[in-house]
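Recall from the previous lesson that a structure prediction takes nothing but the amino acid sequence as input. Here we apply that procedure to Cytochrome ubiquinol oxidase subunit I from Maritimibacter dapengensis. The sequence below is the only information supplied.
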Amino acid sequence: MWENVDAVLLARIQFAFTVSFHFLFPAFTIGLASFLAVLNALWLWTKQEHYLDLFRYWVKIFALAFAMGVVSGIVMSYQFGTNWSVFSDKAGPVIGAPMAYEVLSAFFLEAGFLGIMLFGRERVGPGLHMAATLMVAVGTFISAFWILSVNSWMHTPAGFMVDPETGQFLPTDFWKVIFNPSFPYRLAHTVTAAYLTTAFIVGGVGAFHLLRRRKEGAEPSKATRTMFSMAMWMAAIVAPIQIFLGDQHGLNTLEYQPAKVMAMEGHYESHPDGAPLYLFGIPNDEEQRLDYAIGIPKLSSLILKHGWNEPLDGLDTIPDGDQPPVGIVFWSFRVMVALGFAMMGLGLWSLWARYRGRLFYWPWLHRAAVAMGPSGLIAVLAGWITTEVGRQPFTVYGLLRTADSAAPLDAPAVGASLIAFIVVYFAVFGAGTFYILRLMSRPPVPHEPPLKAEATGPTRAAGITTVRRE
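The prediction returns the following tokens.
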């Protein structure tokens, strides 16, 4: 069964599968943690009950999504030792410290204050509870900071030397390792994407309940209207910013990873007098051309080099062995961009509805918001695929090839673990996602019940004390 299967390809598929599952949860919880902090602050400031109701409604969903993100992240990290031990050995001296700092400065911060945020409102008082909620939100951002720093270093390595005897990457300037050339752009683009992801999920849930109440002939609750309104404000303001950040990230990528941009644009051939922006086409790697191409002349040069006639190199300047898989990168990039503009369109539509006083009464706007609910999750996956597949055939761009990074495993071993991951992930995380959708399917209600801890007293650390009964 596994005779003609490449073990490295299976290891790549396994890592892609697990990281895709994992990335969905932080993409949601990073934004949701900040949303909960805003709701809690508004409740403390105004004492309006619907803010507290919304906090209690969404904190239950956050708790479940956070737990699934932690579990999926732990499983993913083990693959650095099982499937990618050569990469871990060579790059470990550089990336080991930032990954350890992520655990020490971010995960412990989140985990340490999470219990207070979930169960501590009546136990520690409103001030400390608000501080704990802020710490969880800050912790999610710091976690993204360190992980994206490591990932960015793999794309634009800096601040290192290569040991001539061991071939290991050794840090020479830790600040350059962290703040490598692509890191600021990737951090801003990814974190903003997480906020948009949360906004569209919250907006989709709010729109769903607005439509349901309309069908029932009843007025939606203030909490439902508030979460839909807040989500649409976020979409209207942040989506255009995200498109701008994406453009800046693309210009940085053109400077440091030109082959990736060539694949994103479908430019097999160089264009000395201005390159077209291809809207559609079927990449043909064998013939090195884009079949059935439909494009706008010279627009790619205008976007990437700010001039109609500026030259752009194509993949004909890149050796065949150093070219990324164009088909995957070409289409994932277009999915991400299309969803980004759709998000901006929905945000602008909501502004018009708000101006007309119809934000809560235009059913087609609400249907569009429901349809766009998962758009952020799809967009971040498409962006992640564009970034990571576009880096191939390297793990450390230009320096360490993927084929040379894998552990010396046989295909049957990797294939068996991949099948086990697929079965377990769909069973466990499928059940968790189903439960999250069940929580979302009911609207927030006045006096929304809080999360309740099972324990009714202090936890005993030295066994159970026998109580004498008279």
